[in-house]
Amino acid sequence: MPFSPEPTHRHGAAPGGPLATDVAVLLCNLGTPDAPTAPALRRYLAQFLADPRVVEIPRLAWALILHGIILRVRPAKSAAKYATVWTAEGSPLKVWTEKQAKLLQGQLGERGLCVRVAHAMRYGQPSIGQTLDALKREGVRRVLVLPAYPQYSGATTASVIDDVSRWALKTRHLPELRFVNRYHDDPTYIAALAKTVREHWQRDGRAEKLVMSFHGMPERTLHLGDPYHCECLKTGRLLAEALSLRDGEWLVTFQSRFGKAKWLQPYTEPSLVKLAQGGVKSVDVICPGFSADCLETLEEINQEAREAFLHAGGQRFGYIPCLNDHPAGMRALAQLAERHLQGWPTDPAHGDTLAAQRARALAAGARE
Ligand SMILES: C=CC1=C(C)c2cc3[nH]c(cc4nc(cc5[nH]c(cc1n2)c(C)c5CCC(=O)O)C(CCC(=O)O)=C4C)c(C)c3C=C
Ligand SMILES: [Fe+2]
Ligand SMILES: [Fe+2]
After folding, report:
1. Does the C-beta of 32 come closer than 6 Å to ligand 1?
2. Nearest ligand, CA of residue 254?
3. Is ligand 1 within 6 A of the CB of residue 99?
4. pTM (predicted TM-score)
């Protein structure tokens, strides 16, 4: 049978027919509101910020602050920001994540791997539990969970694993499960980032400094043993090495501070302002911790931080987009998945497993 990387043929959820593979990759991202409106933001933030992995303060006190203050004020403010980056197809994070799942399916197919790729969101839709249920119904018996976070943190990666575990607690016949915890130092990921920087330099010229801005975390999580900070610094160092940058030509900063506590430093926007005030005229900014452009990169960096840098005397602010659907970034994800799929039956010749045969028999029975 000719091999097709298309998810609609034997290797995907063919309408009316079962899968020829019982192996799936589940690409998980954070999730995003359904609409750039205050009610949609309230639903999204209520779920996101109630996660004890995200806000680690005693539950009762936090519930009072969250419902008494934050969910009354923040939804409208955040909705206005989302409105500035919203596209015809929806939130950028959703659009990129869907596209990445499709491309990953194709890339794995081209590598001769017969797997089903699906995507899910930790907060909002499609949820991780509902997607795992759907995969099971299609005959999937093995799932590689791939959180789209290069650097591990309790707030992101572990929270995805929590959610899969919550689904597992109420599921009788569990699939085999594997998890990718991190890929912050993966050479193909670093090379992909370096490629996007070089492409930017070729197109727009090279700035005096390369600022690598990562999403922040409360500083206390570092002292409690969260590896996130160290992994961001390692990604930064490896990217600088890949670009042959010298000390002083690059820096790592942390953005998106939330709440009053001290977060990881240096903070992105104040650093950019300090650079401009110190006479730096041009910067390039990349956000290597985000696998896809989203509110935090498009609005906070490419709008707010840009304005702050220019206002403080900077003259040129180059924004380098996230890996999104860049072929080099997709190759990195495909290679990562391939490595973690080792030993599972992904060969098309072996794709017609007992599970798939059983699913087909069931489907045939159901049609009669
Ligand atoms: C990439 C890694 C991320 C880490 C680490 C992270 C930690 C973290 N985030 C918040 C609070 C908010 N984050 C918000 C948006 C947001 N965060 C990430 C990624 C990480 N967060 C992404 C990709 C996005 C964008 C989502 C989108 O829809 O585009 C928001 C919502 C927006 C807003 O109201 O400002 C909040 C809130 C905390 C508290 C935290 C660590 C403890
Ligand atoms: Fe966040
Ligand atoms: Fe933000």
Report:
1. yes
2. 1
3. no
4. 0.90
**Atom 14, ligand 1: which residue's CA is nearest?**
296
CATH of domain 187-320: 3.40.50.1400
| Cα(227)–Cα(300) distance, integer angstroms | 24
The pLDDT tens digits of the residues spanning 49-95 come to 999 999 999 999 999 999 999 999 999 999 999 999 999 999 999 99
Task: Tell me the residue type at 30.
Answer: L
Task: Tell me, in angstroms, the distance from the centre of ligand 1 to residue 126's CA.
Answer: 18
Residue 170: Cβ-neighbour burial (10 angstroms; 0-12, 13-18, 19+)? exposed
ipTM of the complex: 0.96
Phi-psi region of 332 (alpha: psi -120 to 50; beta: other; left: phi over 0): alpha
Is ligand 1 within 6 A of the CB of residue 91? yes
Alpha carbons 76 and 246: distance in angstroms, whole number: 43
Per-domain boundaries in the chain: 38-83, 187-320
Residues of the chain with pLDDT under 70: 1-19, 348-368
User: Does residue 223 have a known ligand-binding role?
Assistant: no
State the chain's maximal CA–CA distance in angstroms. Answer: 76
- Which has the closest alpha carbon to 352: 10, 54, 33, 9? 10
| Residue 200 annotated as binding site | no
